[in-house]
Amino acid sequence: MSADLTRISAAALADKLQAGEVSSVEATRAHLDRIAAVEPAVHAFLHVSDEDALATAADVDARRAHGEQLHPLAGVPIAVKDVVVTKGVPTTAGSKILEGWVPPYDATLVERIKAAGLPILGKTNMDEFAMGSSTEHSAYGNTHNPWDLDRIPGGSGGGSAAAVGAYEAPLAIGTDTGGSIRQPAAVTGTVGVKPTYGSVSRYGLIALASSLDQAGPVTRTVLDSALLHELIGGHDPRDSTSIAEPLPDLVGAARLGALGDLSGVRVGVITELQGEGYQAGVLARFHESLELLQRAGAEVVEVSCPHFTYALAAYYLILPAEASSNLAKFDGMRFGLRVEPSEGPVTAERVMAATRGQGFGDEVKRRIILGTYALSAGYYDAYYGSAQKVRTLIQRDFAAAFAQADVLVSPTAPTTAFKLGEKLDDPLAMYLNDVATIPANLAGVPGLSLPAGLSDDGLPVGFQVLAPAKADDRLYRVGAALEALLENEWGGPLLAKAPELEVAR
């Protein structure tokens, strides 16, 4: 029974909970047992909150027994990326500089999760301060891809994707600054959604790049993502960038899409996000998915977004610049790690240098140096200012493309999961993993990645759907339709084809 509870979707588990077929304590215990069994191999979590999760589950069961009206997802366990602050629970952002830090407050999305009664299983591993595409830059060790433990689970949110893909959690929260939800989803065979910028509160997210960061769901089905997205989304007056409008009907769009009819929907294939540099198997699954969309009644057209060619370069100027500013607060004075110089006078400047030298990893230092340089006198206009102009051109490309199509599509990542260590010493090769996901963050538009099958190497491939800002419901309609069509082809969910993990005894 416990194995069955970890294998079903969040929506199916919610139905069982509401029908009284299973208790939240049973479901939560089943997932905690699964975590204990596979964590030695996967290492998706940095902290597991056994007692708190079971206490929340018991409270939900008691309230349900008394006839209280609860949120549809009440009692369904969830994991949270460790860049999201959680009151009373360690939050490190994958960095030694925050080792042992326990926040005194909850992020807005955590408040909403707790208010809805979802037991929080724990905090998931990530690249330090969300800087990376493989979760190899975590200060606390690598997370492993459940499909092949010798391969990366994507990044920066590899922990959340691996936890969902390894059946340790039915739902997870990730954050996406340049693809950190969608790229891990692509390489682990899960579903990941980057909502419209400002539609999910950033209050309580440890900032990387404030104009790019966005929290969103990581799940095993499109419907599950819609349910979680509706729960965490909506206006928050504590976030100055929050959109003061309600979300569209995401769950309704997913249920409509699952019927498999896309008549009248125009799907734009982005010319610049395919071809050279894309693995043959990735492109094959992408074009097979396009054929399925056409069979469902969609009109498929080619669209050109010429300035997407410069998106990667612009992103890796804007992000480091904002990161260098945001990470200035980690100085050894206020919270987190404090390292005093081993010799000489203990001054504020020397404490700061010692703390940041020991507390930050190589990738974080690399981006801080790059960002500080791009913002320095004499270089601001040449680098940061020019990158912002390119950003405007990319936004115009999106506007022109959405005049021709209701949604845009591409492969989520150019390749399947690569081997651990394969690109660790080549930052530029690592950055290229985000080439298809970065444009959405620069423009603030929403994106969804869902599994599109297996490449020739037997590893998952992701299919990306992009929609105009505040039209997130289009993602769910098209995504759910393709998911239903693909599962009909495969005879069930793609994750069912994943090799079984060896469990600890």
From TrEMBL:
Oligomeric form and interacting partners: Heterotrimer of A, B and C subunits.
Keyword Nucleotide-binding assigned: yes
Domain Amidase: 26-475
SUPFAM superfamilies: Amidase signature (AS) enzymes (SSF75304)
Catalytic activity: L-glutamyl-tRNA(Gln) + L-glutamine + ATP + H2O = L-glutaminyl-tRNA(Gln) + L-glutamate + ADP + phosphate + H(+)
EC main group: ligase
Its job: Allows the formation of correctly charged Gln-tRNA(Gln) through the transamidation of misacylated Glu-tRNA(Gln) in organisms which lack glutaminyl-tRNA synthetase. The reaction takes place in the presence of glutamine and ATP through an activated gamma-phospho-Glu-tRNA(Gln).
Coiled-coil residue windows: none
Species name: Cellulomonas gelida
Name of this chain's protein: Glutamyl-tRNA(Gln) amidotransferase subunit A
Family annotation (PANTHER family): GLUTAMYL-TRNA(GLN) AMIDOTRANSFERASE SUBUNIT A, TRANSAMIDASE
GO cellular component: glutamyl-tRNA(Gln) amidotransferase complex
Protein family: Belongs to the amidase family. GatA subfamily.
EC numbers: 6.3.5.7
Keywords for this protein: ATP-binding, Ligase, Nucleotide-binding, Protein biosynthesis, Transferase
Active site positions, chain numbering: K81 (charge relay system), S156 (charge relay system), S180 (acyl-ester intermediate)
GO molecular function terms noted in the UniProt entry: ATP binding; glutaminyl-tRNA synthase (glutamine-hydrolyzing) activity; transferase activity
